[in-house]
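Case study 2.
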Amino acid sequence: LGEERDEVLAVMEDLRERGVEILTLGQYLRPSDWHLAVERYVHPDEFTELAELGRSLGFHHVEAGPLVRSSYRADRQAAAAARHA
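Prediction:
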């Protein structure tokens, strides 16, 4: 919805501190004119950087990209969770 990079990083750190192991990061896309406008489009390179940072923070599985949703590659997310259970 327009979060700045520092806000995203702070949330990522909070999630790891609370034991979250799987992270998905995606771009908000306005579904219709009745919904909130997009504040900014995040470049795919920034998603790559955030994914690398997420892994360095200790997330066991990270999916990050403009079209990533919470169900994106859910099979891989489940496999990662099983490996670290």
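The chain has a mean pLDDT of 91.
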